[in-house]
Amino acid sequence: MVMKACEIGSKFVGPRHPCFIVAEIGINHNGDMGIAKKLIDSAVFAGCDAVKFQKRTVDVVYTQEELAKPRESSFGNTNGDLKRGLEFGEKEFDEINRYCHEKRILWFASCWDERSVDFIEQYNPPCYKIASPCLTDDALLSHHLVTGKPIIMSTGMSTIAQIDHALDVLGKARVILLHCTSTYPSTPDELNLMVIKQLASRYRHPIGYSGHEVGLYTTLAAVVLGACMIERHITLDRSMWGSDQAASVEPFGIYRLVKDIRFVERAMGDGIKQIYDSELPIMKKLRRVD
């Protein structure tokens, strides 16, 4: 099966192209635009290709019962206070759009409901992300098709049958599938990185990896196994308040990860066995029989 590359902005995602690296900011900004800009700066300095945010219409995504549950935070005493406090609106996304253009980095969002897709579309993002919990939401998948944009879809907590169905709904859309385990943080025993090869052999779409583990080595292993895209959450400090912070990578970590991925890509080569010119003097010196 021939895997087709997918264009995101001016870059291609797929075999024989550099790994596309996404720094997921998500809600790690904690509702603070200053933190959001520092995270964008960290992604730019590290050499990431894009940053990603999340967008929800709180009263659509969550039930009133869920929003009314007690939950203390700096925003109030209920879960609803927290969810609304973490949600950026038009003013904030206007500034995110301006700042990312200024810093020359792509940005996009995972939209958890149809209204959020319509909201983000005004910024003409290069693509959209389907979060793992939304993979089974046929109506939301279909609504993304109206935009005509490439779709990145995480596959956490999903079966092969559910992935097959989601791709049927998406039809001829340009899709990138991300292998993912939806625990924060994920344990090594549950990363199951070999699924990357399974997905690559089953589908014609580029396959990537969305990691929530602690550390960087397993993400590098995903690249070696063929992941064309890498997505990792980023944070200023893993000890910061927030549900995703512990499964995130700090600024130096994302810088090191990008550097190491580019090093590994160089080391992978073209797979054709050859004798390098640098080996010839050693061969002449040490080999007794040609």
Please describe the biggest sheet, giving its number of strands, its sense, and whether it closes into a barrel.
8 strands, parallel
Can you tell me the residue ranges where pLDDT is under 50 for at least 5 consecutive residues? none
Strand adjacency order, main sheet: 7-4-3-12-11-10-9-8
Strand segment tally: 12
Could you say which structural class the secondary elements and strand pairing correspond to? alpha/beta
Mean pLDDT: 96
The rounded Rg comes to 21 Å
Fraction of residues in helix: 25-40%
Task: List descriptors.
290 residues, TIM Barrel, eight-stranded parallel beta sheet, two-stranded antiparallel ribbon, 12 helices, 12 strands, globular
Task: Describe the 3D structure.
The chain is of the alpha/beta class. It has a single domain, classed as Alpha-Beta Barrel (TIM Barrel). It has twelve helices and twelve strands. It has an eight-stranded parallel β-sheet with strand order 7-4-3-12-11-10-9-8. α1 packs parallel to α5, α1 runs parallel beside α11 and α10 runs parallel beside α11.
